[in-house]
TrEMBL record:
Stored SUPFAM superfamilies: Enolase C-terminal domain-like, Enolase N-terminal domain-like
RNA-binding listed as a keyword: no
Gene Ontology molecular-function annotations: lyase activity
InterPro entries: DgoD-like, Enolase-like_C_sf, Enolase-like_N, Mandelate_racemase_N_dom
Keyword set includes Lyase: yes
Gene3D superfamilies found in the cross-reference section: Enolase-like C-terminal domain (3.20.20.120), Enolase-like, N-terminal domain (3.30.390.10)
Mandelate racemase/muconate lactonizing enzyme N-terminal domain: residues covered: 18-108
Protein name: Mandelate racemase/muconate lactonizing enzyme N-terminal domain-containing protein
Pfam families: MR_MLE_N (PF02746)
Organism from which the protein derives: Dendrothele bispora (strain CBS 962.96)
Keyword annotations: Lyase
């Protein structure tokens, strides 16, 4: 393995239905790191930002902080969702490479583990913990990914989970995470209305 690991290639990949954009960074010694630079509705703009970020090809891949600072500070106009989304994907990919070079997961190297599980069925136990910590409201996943036309049982399960959380004494916000097609989302929103959730989010063109 070369002692000097430099960035050799930066590529982007759209994932249908073009909601997600992934970043692949390869080094001169063949190590590949992956990141995500999704900004829904602005995929082409992110790809354009990567045309500029490819100026870091040839730079040492371990210089992650320097690359980030130069990418952010090196232009007169800074920040914004497009640049920051592109830069976050590049940053993740470079940390992925660093972890692979040193044979240790990035979350372990930086003590970044946050979620060992995140399923709708976990919300009650998590909510009880938040209640004990003094929180008065929580946000929950609506459900797992749902088919365009799915069983009403899927919707009833979500309603029951909201009721469980409210029974603990918590206000509930619900994130659909784009898992619902419009028809199913409208049905679930109607079922949830009597429960008066704090909000629902992650649904396109619900009304």
């Amino acid at each position: 393995m070369s002692s000097k690991c430099t960035i050799a290639k930066i590529e982007t990949f759209r994932v249908p239905p073009n909601r997600w954009l992934f970043v692949r960074v390869e080094t001169n010694d063949g190590i590949v790191g992956w990141g995500e630079s999704t900004l829904e509705g602005h995929t082409e703009a992110i790809e354009g930002a990567f045309s500029d970020l490819r100026r870091f090809i040839g730079v040492e891949a371990d210089n992650i902080v320097d690359i980030w600072q130069e990418a952010y500070m090196g232009r007169f106009y800074r920040g914004g969702p497009v640049l920051m989304s592109a830069l976050s994907g590049l940053d993740i990919a470079l940390w992925d490479i660093k972890g692979k070079r040193h044979g240790i997961p990035v979350w372990k190297r930086k003590d970044l583990r946050s979620h060992q599980r995140d399923q709708p069925s976990d919300v009650l136990d998590t909510a009880k913990n938040r209640k004990a910590e003094g929180f008065t409201c929580v946000k929950m996943n609506a459900t797992d990914i749902v088919a365009r036309i799915d069983s009403p049982e899927v919707l009833r399960g979500t309603v029951e989970r909201v009721q469980q959380l409210q029974s603990v004494g918590l206000g509930v916000g619900i994130d659909f995470h784009g898992h619902f097609h419009k028809g199913m989302a409208k049905q679930l929103a109607k079922l949830l209305e009597p429960l008066h959730p704090l909000f629902i989010e992650g649904i396109d063109n619900l009304f």
